[in-house]
Design a protein that fits this description.
Elements (H helix, E strand, L loop, with lengths): L4 H18 L3 H11 L15 H17 L5 H24 L8 H32 L3 H21 L4 H27 L8
Helix pairs in contact: 1-4, 1-5, 1-6, 2-3, 2-6, 4-5, 6-7
Length: about 200
């Protein structure tokens, strides 16, 4: 059975754009590294991602983003600064994956891909930035940041290598994050309000 490339391209595109919302530079870095290794093939103009300048520039940016995102308060500043980059990253990685769509004018396809990718990444990034101060209050900022980085990396790899699994991964990641935060909230509530003893 031959799978229509569009069935693979769209989950990959949305998966990478969503991953860009969690970590703006990591999906670009993964796409760049895999393209340089010959494991994925990018159509122009996205093939510029595999150049030395693009790869090492994105690598430096990824190190800075990773470090600043682990420091409470500084992470909120980083989210504000990185918001345009997250949208741009989502647009680029989304557009790089939707080149298989040939039924519409190429110019329209590129513009629509960039807009949808930017919107997806920006939505995830804004939600993440809004939730982080709450996580910082309960001293979970670095843990949540690490979870976001791991999710972004895994989502990027799955989107590129097994795109049909992206919807399952997104649902699983959402349920896992919800369970993590709920468990943490219950533990803190139990510490604050210990159960009354037999005589209490």
């Amino acid at each position: 059975m031959v799978v229509d490339p569009r069935l693979l391209a769209l989950p990959a595109a949305f998966g990478l754009a969503g991953a860009s919302g969690l970590n703006a530079s990591l999906p670009l870095l993964i796409v760049s590294a895999l393209a340089r290794a010959g494991l994925v093939h990018l159509a122009p103009p996205f093939d510029a991602l595999q150049s030395d300048v693009a790869f090492y520039g994105i690598l430096c940016l990824a190190v800075v983003e990773f470090a600043t995102d682990k420091v409470p308060a500084l992470d909120s500043v980083g989210h504000f600064v990185m918001a345009p980059l997250a949208a741009a990253s989502g647009a680029i990685v989304f557009g790089s994956q939707t080149g298989a769509i040939r039924d519409v004018d190429p110019g329209v396809a590129v513009v629509m891909s960039l807009l949808v990718g930017a919107g997806t990444a920006a939505t995830v990034h804004v939600a993440r930035a809004a939730a982080r101060p709450v996580a910082n209050v309960v001293l979970m900022g670095p843990v949540v940041s690490t979870f976001e980085d791991a999710t972004s990396a895994i989502l990027s790899m799955v989107a590129l290598l097994a795109p049909l699994l992206v919807p399952l991964l997104l649902v699983g990641g959402g349920v896992g994050f919800w369970a993590l935060m709920r468990g943490r909230a219950r533990r803190r509530a139990a510490q604050r309000w210990p159960a009354a003893g037999p005589g209490g």
